[in-house]
Amino acid sequence: MCGGLGKKKTARSLNRATQSVRQTGSAIKPIAVLAPAIDKKIITSASIYDDTEKDFEGGYHPIDYSKSLGEITVRRAVESSQNIPFVEIMEELKPKNAISYLEKMGVTSLTKEDNNLALSLGGLQKGISPLEMAGAYSTIANNGEYIEPTFYSKIIDKSNNTVIESKQEKRRVFSKEVACILQQLLTQPVKGTAGTATYCAISGVDVAAKTGTTDENYDRWLCGFTPYYTAVTWYGYDQNETVEYNKKNPAGLLWANIMSRIHTGLQSAKFSIPNTVTTATICAETGKRARTGCQNTYQEYFLWLTVPGICNKHSGSEMGNNTNNINNTPSNNTNTIIKGITEDIDAIDPQEMLPKNPSDTEKTENETTSSRK
Ligand SMILES: [Zn+2]
Prior knowledge:
Helix content is 21%, strand content 15%. The chain contains 9 helices and 12 strands. It has a 3-stranded antiparallel beta sheet with strand order 7-8-9, sandwiched between helices. A 3-stranded antiparallel beta sheet has the order 11-10-12. It binds zinc ion. Zinc ion is lined by residues 283, 285-286, 290-291, 294, 311, 313-314.
């Protein structure tokens, strides 16, 4: 928890972590859309959605911040935070179901007005506090169990008697398998070549992270976790004002700096993968099991019995060893992409440490949000 800039002038002043209820932008997508839709088996990480502008119910017409990509997998939509697929998923999921999941994950500030498709992109009537965002994200990090955030564990007196002990509410929201799928999916903004949070990578440690930005750049978020810690950073003004910071996400830079530092010296750690989760080689164009003729393939994680059918666009035989229970290392290139952001990065923008790809202009994410169009 942290407050504002400048000297503290009053006692018990505004606590922005617990009291500032802010628009979330895309940072809400994992908890409002992905978690419920995967749990209800409406989508898998490989489901194909059409990222093309269209009118939704009531004339709602969301746009992508950067260009629309046409038919893409959910994983690709997560990578650069395309907007339209999330609205399509929300249409199937129904906003009232999303609200129910959010509430189970400790979000208390939603209103009746939030029961609409704009919920999928974080266009909320009031918003969500950073603390409640952290509680909700930690449900994914804690393998599906919501644990109410606390600021102390216990207070003991000089004779070691416990005076007060923190009682944290706990409840299971979804299974560890669903949590695993979400964890793996949310590594995509960090490890994907078009990822919006590549600068959040920590050497040797799995990182899941999602950015959020709202209209006019009033709010900048980074919500994420590792096998060790969950952290949420928000950056903005108490009275809405555009956040200008060298075109980068200052909340993301804060997150990357803080998290890389607190992981210094910790052992390498990966998100655990239950042996009840299945992996398969997928054709990225069709979202189905890959054949030898498929051009763009990758390994994906699936809940039991949700592995898709075989690619119906390309030819060839099914790729060998297509469906496995995995405890072996998946063949993605996480390790080669993860870059070290370790010590002494106080003055360094972590993004500057990444290799420059000429075709790789400023990584932007698709924003929208507070406006209901
Ligand atoms: Zn194919």
